[in-house]
């Protein structure tokens, strides 16, 4: 197998892609062999339970090919149409697999139930079916352990789902062995009872897989323990004063996180951005997260008065000059703070202007009048701006 990633595969996912391909092809070979043995021996050996388990193994083949397809396309790099990558192809494949298992289980359940009502369908099975049942049990359990070890190493939800599918096969094979053994011991109806139980187990596993995949596709949050851990990472970031509106959702084997963090409202934009990037990198480093969107808030906007009704900088500066009736000279710099539904203004004036005591006294008096009655300004502060 080539050491270079196939065209379109994200190089970062190359090792994961190759390992998933390898384990899935092993599963394909095992399931081909077991499917043929179970269906052929089950048919000629008159074991409905073994045939049902053979059809179960056939559904495994379908799931293996779905995994191969999803692994190939889900490992592709992000593009303009899929900026977060293609990881949810795995989720969609898991949902399809779950639906197929439910349908298979229901059909087998219906068939076994109908045969139980027909006394002529209850026959003694051939002893060879017991040996094939035992071989299947060993093969499925071995396959489960191998696949689960790889799935855990790769942290692949889809491979874990396929591994647990093999474990369900091992469990159903155990039921089949018990049913065949009971049939051979003289309790001939037990083979059909085993077929009913296998059908039920197939449908149940399909429901669980489909439900989990659907939960991800509708953006269900991570579990409470994971959310609490992410919250701790964000809140412990230096400069973060509070956290609200933390939202999470699964994305394949990772997650997407959105959060609003509260910072000192008087710091610079660049410092606020630095705090946001620090918080983001901490979450990416410490958790299985694909991306984090950190929104910087100067105040808790879930409780504070919103400022969206206020005008922009240009209109506010024009209004400020009008309010001060020409008493305000050309400032060196003006900083606006949108807080609690109003605007706090910081005006930096030249040293020469600040040294004129009479003019400054008149300006401060006018500012006090404005702040008491103005709809926009909550405070206006004057600062001396000394050139370096």
Number of domains as seen in the coordinates: 3
The third-level CATH topology of the largest domain is: Alpha-lytic protease prodomain-like
Taking all Cα atoms into account, the compactness measure Rg is 34 Å
Assembly state of the chains shown: single chain
| CATH class label of the largest domain | Mainly Alpha
- Sequence stretches where pLDDT stays below 50 over 5 or more residues: 1-5
- What would you call the shape? rod-shaped
- Per CATH, the superfamily of the largest domain is Cation efflux protein transmembrane domain
- SSE topology string: HHHHHHHEEHEHEEHHE
**Number of helical regions:** 11
What's the helical proportion of residues? 55-70%
Please give the CATH architecture of the largest domain: Up-down Bundle
Overall structural class, as computed from helix and strand content, comes to: alpha/beta
Mean model confidence by pLDDT? 81
Largest sheet: 3 strands, mixed
Summarize the structure.
This protein is an alpha/beta fold and 388 residues long. Helices cover 60% and strands 13% of the residues. It has helices at 14-44, 48-74, 88-116, 128-154, 157-184, 190-217, 224-235, 269-286, 313-323, 351-354, 357-373, and strands at residues 242-251, 254-262, 291-297, 333-339, 342-350, 377-385.
Short key terms for the protein model shown above:
388 residues, alpha/beta, Alpha-lytic protease prodomain-like, Alpha-Beta Plaits, 3 domains, 3-stranded mixed β-sheet, 11 helices, 6 strands, rod-shaped, disordered N terminus, monoatomic cation transmembrane transporter activity, Cation_efflux, Cation_efflux_CTD_sf, Cation_efflux_TM
